[in-house]
Amino acid sequence: MQDYHNFIAEILIDEQSIQTRIKELGEEISRDYKTKNLLLICILRGGIVFLVDLMRHITVPTQLDFMAVSSYGAGARQSGGSVRLSLDLKTDIRNKDVLLVEDIVDSGNTIAYVLEFLQTRQPRSLKVCTLLDKEERRETPVPIHYRGFSIPNKFVFGYGLDLDEYYRNLPFIAVVDLKKYQPPA
Ligand code: IMP
Ligand code: MG
Fold first, then answer.
1. Domain limits at 111?
2. pLDDT tens digits, one per residue of 116-143
3. Whether pLDDT at 72 is above 90
4. DSSP string across 89-156
5. Which of 98, 108, 181, 184 lies 20 to 30 Å from 155, alpha-carbon distance?
6. pTM for this structure?
7. How confident is the model at residue 2 (pLDDT cuts 50, 70, 90)?
């Protein structure tokens, strides 16, 4: 694989800034959910790194579950297209205060689909926490209750977000220079 140093246009958010913001979000969530029945739902795979750091700053009793969705009709490094459930929850969410944990809200189509789908199962409350928000790209309006950072309309990777399924492990968020990047064969 190509060394990512060769195609980073810029480090958009460094490791320390991510960690500082996540601590603040965790504290805010802990205050808001003090008397609630919190269930964190991580949307795989992008949300996993954020989830793992965020949950360790949450001090109220918390449950955890996972779901996955796939979008069809979108090319590589594009979102959009239609969304479908590919992994369902194990937990019954009725009477739970559900907080969705996402890496990024881009067009909004994924979150809109997930919200509509989960709402039919009658959780007590249903909110959205996303690390990144690319507001400029929104096609479907969605409520965002906890937002790490608003970012410009650039393709980013690292900290859970992939570039052709690689580099999710990087501890920072970087912008790719598509002129220098070679997709895996
Ligand atoms: P949406 O349905 O358009 O809001 O897209 C959401 C999904 O697209 C995210 O959960 C990511 O998996 C992916 N995505 C959107 N923008 C980026 C990006 O800049 N880098 C990596 N993945 C992205
Ligand atoms: Mg995702």
1. 15-153
2. 999 999 999 999 999 999 999 999 999 9
3. no
4. -SS--BT-EEEEEEEEESSSHHHHHHHHHHHTT-BSEEEEEEEEE-GGG-SS----SEEEEE--SS-E
5. 98
6. 0.95
7. confident
Task: Report the CATH number at residue 41.
Answer: 3.40.50.2020
Domain contains 179: no
- The C-alpha atoms of residue 76 and residue 37 are separated, in whole angstroms, by 38
159 within 8 A of 122, measured Cβ to Cβ: no
pLDDT level of residue 75 (50, 70, 90 thresholds):
low
Nearest Cα residue to 45 out of 135, 161, 129: 161
Does 109 fall in a domain? yes
Give the DSSP letter of residue 6: G
Protein residue with its CA nearest to atom 16 in ligand 1: 106
- The C-alpha atoms of residue 24 and residue 51 are separated, in whole angstroms, by 14
176 domain residue, yes or no: no
Cα(156) to ligand 1 centroid in Å equals: 9
Ligand number nearest to the C-alpha of 106: 1
In a domain, 174, yes or no: no
Task: Report the atom number in ligand 1 closest to the C-alpha of 134.
Answer: 16
108 lines ligand 1 (CB under 6 A): yes
135 CA to middle of ligand 1, Å?
12
